[in-house]
Amino acid sequence: GNSVTQMEGPVTLSEEAFLTINCTYTATGYPSLFWYVQYPGEGLQLLLKATKADDKGSNKGFEATYRKETTSFHLEKGSVQVSDSAVYFCALSNNFNKFYFGSGTKLNVKP
Amino acid sequence: NAGVMQNPRHLVRRRGQEARLRCSPMKGHSHVYWYRQLPEEGLKFMVYLQKENIIDESGMPKERFSAEFPKEGPSILRIQQVVRGDSAAYFCASSPLGAEQETQYFGPGTRLLVL
Known about the structure:
heterodimer; A: 111 residues; mainly beta; 4-stranded antiparallel sheet; 54% strand; globular; B: 115 residues; 7-stranded mixed sheet
């Protein structure tokens, strides 16, 4: 079956620290992988995506590389800001628009 | 181009009442998806609809829940005889194509509280 596992939060970092949020997946076939971000009281916004192995998705300083050999799609950012505080969801899509989401990782960035 | 719109943003119901959640997809999008997010959890797929058709409802509870996407007007998620366990955030997403792996765009959600 299809599933996504994310590291549990909350993750608390100081401003300008390096961020890694781990995400691994189980899927049949060749899924696309996504990171979505959810700010308090809002819906999910697409942060980045990768559609095939070894692709790197990037946006707003965030990066994630599709690793088929380790079935992973870890999210990284070199220097986080207070404004990055949010909940981050890893997701995969493998079956005509049905998405499978991880449970989310809350990030708190302190000044 | 307005994004996905959902209303109401917050809905309070007493046990046994009906809840109706509305979703207007982005302009040009003809595919709608509903997800439920329980507190401190990720989103769980409920149903995928195209205009006048339910494509995949494998995530919908078998009783009390129904969804439609009429030819005209918004998509409606209807919950009859609500129970406390229905309290959650319900998100709608839309996409322009039925093609595999097309990106979905999410609305702000409706937060349902059942007293």
